[in-house]
Amino acid sequence: MGRRFVTPPNWPQPPAGWVPPPGWQPPAEWGPPPPNWQFWVDDEQPPVEPSRGVTADESKIPRFGARKHAKQLAAEVAALREQLGRLGAMDVAELERQRAQLQQQIAAQEQELRDREERHRAEISRLQHELNALKAEIIQTQDVAILQEVGIYEARHPLDDSTAYKAELARLQDAMKAMARKDGGAVEAAKGWTVDGSISKGRAMVNEYSKLVLRAYNAEADNLVRAMKPYRLQTSLDRLEKVALTIERLGRTMSIRISPAYHQLRRLELELTADYLDKLAEEKEREREERERLREERRAQQEFEAERRRLEKERQHYENVLAALIAKGDEAGAERLRQQLADIEKALQEVDYRAANVRAGYVYVISNIGAFGENTVKIGMTRRLEPMDRIRELGDASVPFRFDVHALFFSEDALGIEAALHERFADKRVNKVNMRREFFRITPAEARDALMELTGNLISYTEVPEAAEFRQSQAATRPVAG
């Protein structure tokens, strides 16, 4: 008795008499065979079609409900035959062909995705390189951004005053004018350039382009000079350097470029201009401070003169009264007037002393927490007869609140005490550039201790500022509890 190979119903039907060779495996797309499927049967034994995973032994018709069970089996057989029809319509070769075709499509799509990813990566790299190149060419020109990095400006060519800078700039500009003339060396260019075979035409073209290039370069340099501020110097130098490099790149065909010597002169012009403006601003600030000092001195002298006139008028009045009392023989009244005349004479001498001694005056320690915050004091001196007049002037409309006085005392060497205090708290200065700004980041208690060491005693000192207007303003802004 022979045996034959039986394919499952969900597999394609092989040709008649086909036997699987040794090691043969069905393609994965055929799907698994039904459970317990018998691939080899005897020649006389018909194949068994189990239903939904039920073996031949289990598919026996039950004793009861045979008709219902038969209908169920018939429906399952119909479904299996339909599936078999769909799959059986294709032979093995057709399935292999479709599988290969699908694999080729998948491979092509994967390759396309890899190529697209590579192109995107190359585009990103190119754009990043271009962005870096553009960033290298950008020159920061906005004042806010420049000022965030600027430190104390230091002159590159320190001269005595602005007049010296102005003279040096004039000499420099004469040298630039000499180089800018024809054949002066401001522009370098090719010598053997020809046009239509003519050297003269070529020379004329090179000269015209050289003039055009020099005009553009000078226009940019002049704009930088006109807009110069000391803190913009490095930005202006970078921009001028970029202009020179751009001209050299665009004029490469005819070897046209700004000569290094002329470019260096224009760089030096920018540096001297920045130094000149800085020196000019410094001199103006000194002049302003000097005018303020002279105004303060003039007010003090006016007060001294007014006080002297008042005291002399009062002395004349008392002298007249004294003469009348003596004529009447009132010795007691005359003695009282002589004492008052002595006090007036003493006051006159004090006024004369104050007017003659420029070092005498009042040292004051004041603060304004509403304007400058806590732990910031101003230490200064005034020669005014009434020092509070000076303090009231400092608290005028330029600050939102009036100053509070911590200490105010007279000294014959007020200038010396003020200088000593400034030196002691030099590292606590708010403005470390302008030494005429007398504000310090110290507490009133620190100022009090320093004054005690210098003067030996203080008649009165107020450590906690009243700051009435500031505190009332703060209270007015607080929300009212509901």
Keywords:
4-stranded antiparallel β-sheet, single chain, alpha+beta, 13 helices
What's the short version?
The chain has 482 residues and is of the alpha+beta class. The chain is 58% helix and 7% strand.
Give structural notes:
The protein is of the alpha+beta class. Among the domains are: 3-90, no CATH class; 162-286; 359-476, no CATH class. Helices cover 58% and strands 7% of the residues. It has 13 helices and eight strands. It has helices at residues 66-88, 92-137, 143-149, 162-180, 199-226, 233-250, 260-328, 331-356, 369-372, 387-394, 414-424, 444-455, 468-477; strands at 3-5, 40-42, 187-188, 257-258, 361-367, 377-382, 404-411, 439-440. The strands form three sheets. Strands 7-5-6-8 form a four-stranded antiparallel sheet, sandwiched between helices. A two-stranded antiparallel ribbon has the order 1-2. The longest helix has 69 residues, at 260-328. The relative contact order is 0.05.
Structure annotation, total helices: 13
Oligomer: single chain
Strand content: 5-15%
Q: What is the helix/strand order? A: EEHHHHEHHEHHEHEHEHEHH
Q: Identify the overall geometry.
A: elongated
Which regions are unreliable across 5 or more consecutive residues at pLDDT < 50? Answer: 49-59, 146-152
Any idea what the radius of gyration is? 53 Å
Largest sheet: 4 strands, antiparallel
**Strand numbers in spatial order across the main sheet:** 7-5-6-8
Q: End-to-end span in angstroms?
A: 108 Å
Task: State the helicity in percent bands.
Answer: 55-70%
- Count of individual beta strands: 8
Classify the secondary structure makeup into a structural class: alpha+beta
| Averaged pLDDT | 81
